[in-house]
Amino acid sequence: MKKQLAAVFASAIAATGLVACGNDDKADDATVTIGTTDSAKKAWSVWEDKAKENGINLEIENFSDYNTPNQALTQKQIDANLFQHLDFLATYNVKSNSDLAPVGSTEVVPLALFWKDHDSIDGIDGEEVAIPNDPTNQARAINVLKSKDLVKLKKDDVAKPTPADVDTEKSKVKLTPVDAAQTSTAYFEGKPAIINNTFLDRAGIDPKTAVLQDDPSDPSTEPFINVLVTTKDNVDNENLKKLVELWHTPEVQKAVEEDSKGTSVSVDRSQEDLQKILDRLEEQNK
Questions:
Q1: Averaged confidence pLDDT in the chain
Q2: Which of 28, 130, 161, 171 could form a disulfide with 165 if both were Cys (CB 3.0 to 4.6 A apart)?
């Protein structure tokens, strides 16, 4: 009888152990912390749900500015971030002597010119165009205007032009660099303005009313591919790769389309391709 009771007791312990292990496995789903500046957008909640379905607990940490997410990642306070394009990342890496790296791509959001009560650039000659004054958006804005010969550069091979590179006598418009947050103010004052999506959304300006924008399929927009970023020693992390894959699922892409009002263009480039672009951009920034 004692032997039988011992056997039953042992079996019960084993069974309990198996149940406990099963629960632990479920509780031990991978947790990934990602920093962003756009956590309120619908795409993030849909992405979080898709991650959960695939065994990844996605913890989203929102930041109020564009500098802190990279600093937090460098200090390994978070596992990755998703808020920036390659050109911004290249500038950060060079200035801070960091080696943050892209895991995968998400989309390109066109940078566009808006002109209140106009549906084309007809009649824009002689106008003052407000452009963002931060280095990355300023250079991109000048290239948008250059694409339609609204500005001429003193030298065409300048990758990141500034107003000093513009030949004012040969240009059709004048440039007025302002803080990016003030570009929408200029628009409402009746001036043509190049406004990025963040401030379009805040000002309630319909992205589809743009009179001119850059072409996401053109190689010149490669620097502006948005990327999921991590530390150099973590680029092969399978959970991060899976998150990139999940970003491109129909459910998340539908939410991205809603968030951007149909302006975002999905981009799915390999980690190797993205790193090559980043290396080139970093070289240009040195």
A1: 89
A2: 161
